[in-house]
Write a structure and sequence with these properties.
This protein has 134 residues and is an all-alpha fold. It has a domain of 91 residues: Annexin V, domain 1. Helices cover 51% and strands 3% of the residues. The chain has six helices and two strands. The chain has a two-stranded antiparallel sheet with strand order 1-2. Helix 3 runs antiparallel to helix 4. The protein starts with 9 loop residues before the first helix and ends with a helix. One of its GO terms (biological process) is nervous system development. It is found in: Cell membrane. One of its GO terms (cellular component) is external side of plasma membrane.
Amino acid sequence: CLCKEPGMDPDCNHFRDFLFDHPCGFVLKKAEKDPYPIDALPTCNHALSVCQQERKCLKLFEDFKAHCKVRDNKCKMENRDACHDSWTNLRLSPMFGCICPNNHMKKRCDRIFNIVNHNPCVVRIMGMDDKLHL
């Protein structure tokens, strides 16, 4: 696990987070129960299905889409902090880290994947954060 090293330079840790986007900071303690237990990386279709069955997860996804609005593949967010917070919260759901294998559901899966992983608002936020820490 490539988690942050407390003795390392903060810029190095930020750069590592930016490159790897590693979820180590979100690992649950064994005493805590994972609210969305999925044994392997889910397809994005399955992740959305699981998320829709859990009101809290669905709210995370809906908040993300509302705060990190995209129209015509352009970011239309109104509040940078709200978008960043909703993206950070979404990372705790099955929606983050889902995959799209080549099968008959790939087109729908890719659409779901792109909402989460290729959101131009998140790219903009990460670019701004990176410039602030260089």
